[in-house]
Amino acid sequence: MEKQNKEVNQQEPQKENMVDWFVRFIKGMFIGTGFILPGVSGGALAAVFGLYERMISFLAHITREFKKNLLYFLPVGFGGIVGVVLVSFLLSFFLEGYEPQMRWLFVGCILGTLPALWKEAGKKGRKKGNIILMVASAVLGTLFLWYGDVLFGGGSMPLNFGTWMMAGALIGLGVLVPGLSPSNFLMYFNMYKPMVDAFKNFDVMVILAIGLGGLICLLAFSKLMDYLFDKVYAGLFHFILGIVFASTVMIIPWDYNYASLGTIGCVLLCIGGIALGYWMSSLEEKYKPEKA
User: Fold this and answer.
1) Measuring CA to CA, how many Å separate 213 from each of 44, 63, 155, 184?
2) Higher model confidence: residue 286 or residue 101?
3) pLDDT tens-digit profile of 133-142?
4) pTM, 2 dp
5) 27, 42, 108, 222: which could form a disulfide with 270 (CB 3.0–4.6 Å)?
6) How far is CA 10 from the centre of its chain?
7) What is the Cα–Cα distance from 258 to 237, expressed in whole angstroms?
8) What is the dihedral of CA 171, 114, 229, 239, to 10 degrees?
9) Cβ-based neighbour number of residue 203 at 10 Å
10) Whether 41 contacts 179, CB under 8 Å
11) DSSP string over 40-69
12) pLDDT tops 90 at residue 1
């Protein structure tokens, strides 16, 4: 009888560990979608699910309890990969024939997250200088991206190992900076759809370059971001808000024929995107008690 009770007691922690592993895997899937969905931030979703602070601490102090943290984040990483691949299949299909409508969906997603980002930016105070910084970064960012057509050859980047590493670095920043959506910039540089296709087709060269760029960015800037958010949180977040606005303006399909029936789809998807973005942002409020 005692032997049976002992076996039951041993099985219960194992079941709990498996459930916990699976929960972290599911969280990783959601976070993975934030790597490639414009308007959705992988870092913000990591914060939503209570993983952000531990993740930044792990990256900033990589040798501290390395094995324990590695085992903890392993299911998150696996889930992230699955999330990226699944979403890539869907996005690749719709971007092929409905790119203007999909762009408006993404714009809607970004607009839906703005109230939460505004609230988050003012969490530690909001001074007049922060507002000026936000407006300045929005104006200068828009001008830079607009005239980047000349600087970057029509807004396009050559697709090679180096530029894919740059894309990975941007995705890494999206992990480090909650609210920052790197996909906005990748769409501007016309790298977004090729990236989605590469994930869908398991293009090893592209995936390796993106992974390497992201890893280098995370290791190089995790301590810096940890320090900046601690010292100048409000200023940094308002600066990021301005950049988010600028990048959003640039992904709007300005040259689309809005006299066509496709405009109805653009409007409906934009509204749907706003609802989706707002819902995703509201999850943070819902999960705050669990993060405390």
Assistant:
1) 20, 20, 21, 18
2) 101
3) 999 988 887 7
4) 0.62
5) 108
6) 39
7) 35
8) 90
9) 16
10) yes
11) --HHHHHHHTT-HHHHHHHHHTTTTTHHHH
12) no
